[in-house]
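Subject: for your reference before the review

Hello V.,

The reviewers asked for a structural picture of the protein, and I figured it would be easier to keep everything in one thread rather than splitting it across files. Below is the amino acid sequence we used in the manuscript, unchanged from the supplementary table.
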Amino acid sequence: MFICIGNQKKRLELFYLVLFAILFKFSSLIWGFAIYFVLWHSIPSIINQIKFSNGSCFVSNFIAYCPVAGVYWLVSLVEMALLYFTFKEEQLFNTLFFSFLAAITFPHTLVITRIFRGKKENKIKINVHKKTVHQRRTVF
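And here is what came back from the structure prediction:
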């Protein structure tokens, strides 16, 4: 059944499934998740953020995005390193680490929700505009 999939998107999803299976079979859980997180979450998220803030994702827009986002990345990495080196021998590190992840996930979720809400509203406005233009053409 899966071999005869005609839809290109389904083929791509099947490819990803096989790739994830291989990735998680032959790597540790933490490395598998790190690779997944960077390739299938972070990079598309960065592209969406660049498109949202600049309207398109060109190399020049990416170069302009990096210094702004880099400040946040650097602060996060420094704070995580400080937590690790301060509490690496204690069980408290795991609690602090996951609290830190939750603390950065919540604002990230709000920003991404705002981005996608804006995309949806823009699509609605464009469709309404197209219908209005079409109605004007049919009236005249």
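For the response letter, the relevant points are probably these. Residues 21 and 32 are 10 Å apart (CA to CA). The chain has two domains: 1-57, 70-140.

Happy to draft the paragraph if you're swamped.

O.
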